[in-house]
Amino acid sequence: MADKLKIKISIADRVYPLTIQPKQEEGLRKAAKKIEAMIKQFEQSYAVRDKQDVLAMCALQFAAQTEQQGIDKSAEMLEAEDKLKSLNDLLQSHLAN
């Protein structure tokens, strides 16, 4: 456990002590900042008084972003596969001549 790092992350006015790999620290701190910014945005935009509701909306937004990125990557992969297949077909036709 000597290579572990103990940090504290604050989200929605609560402090969460974590034991992590040092390489995870930057990502966790950036994520906490994004969550805090999103919380502030939701509180300013909507009449939400309950932190639980705000946190649920943050979780939904992050999950939706992650899912959309997966969908976008799948579409890009299919497009790339189609282009590679077309290129392969073109090469095969020229080699056959």
Oligomer: single chain
Q: Give average pLDDT, whole number.
A: 91
Helix content: 55-70%
What Rg, in angstroms, do the CA atoms define? 23 Å
Which secondary-structure class do the elements indicate? alpha+beta
* Number of beta strands: 2
What is the ordering of alpha helices and beta strands? EEHH
How would a textbook summarize the main sheet?
2 strands, antiparallel
Looking across the biggest beta sheet, what order are the strands in? Answer: 1-2
The fraction of residues in strands falls at: 5-15%
- Tell me, what's the shape? elongated
Query: Number of helical runs?
Result: 2
Distance between the termini: 65 Å
Pick out the low-confidence regions: none
Task: Report on this structure.
Keywords: Cell cycle, Cell division. It is a single chain. The protein has two helices and two strands; from the N terminus they run E-E-H-H. It has 97 residues and is of the alpha+beta class. It has a two-stranded antiparallel ribbon. Strand 1 (5-11) and strand 2 form a beta hairpin. The model has no long low-confidence stretch (mean pLDDT 91).
